[in-house]
Amino acid sequence: MPLAETVHMHYEYLFWSMAAMVAAALAGGALCGRLQSVKQLVIGLLGWAAAIFAVVLLLARQGGFDELAAMLSIAAFMFSLVIGTAAALLTRRIRLHRQQQQMPQSLRQ
């Protein structure tokens, strides 16, 4: 049976890893939201989520979560797709709104 300190360290490592994954998904979604077409956005998000999948799989195996590595990496892939998509859609909406606000000003000049 593992020591309480070891279990606490594993859960703390897992918590910070998931927080970093969410931050990476938000950043990736915000970057992909700046792409020109929806096709590029989807391809970018899938690539970003695949990269997160690979990193989580590698780090989970090294971090003492060998038996959970597959499940954690699949969950990270799906979460990063959802979070990244939300961030990308929000980014696109903000950019479109700003472009629409600037367009009438440029016509006035």
The number of helical runs is: 3
Structural class: mainly alpha
CA-based gyration radius: 19 Å
**Gap between N and C termini, in Å?**
74 Å
Spans of at least 5 consecutive residues whose pLDDT stays below 50 are none
How much helix, percentage-wise, in residues?
over 70%
The total strand number stands at 0
Any idea what the shape is? elongated
- The averaged pLDDT comes out at 87
Strand proportion: under 5%
Strand count, sense and closure of the main sheet?
Answer: none
Compressed to H and E, one letter per element, the order equals HHH
Overview of this structure, please?
The chain has 109 residues and is mostly helical. The chain has a domain of 72 residues. The chain is 86% helix and 0% strand. The chain has 3 helices and no strands. It is elongated. The termini are far apart. The model has no long low-confidence stretch (mean pLDDT 87).
Features:
single chain; 109 residues; mainly alpha; 3 helices
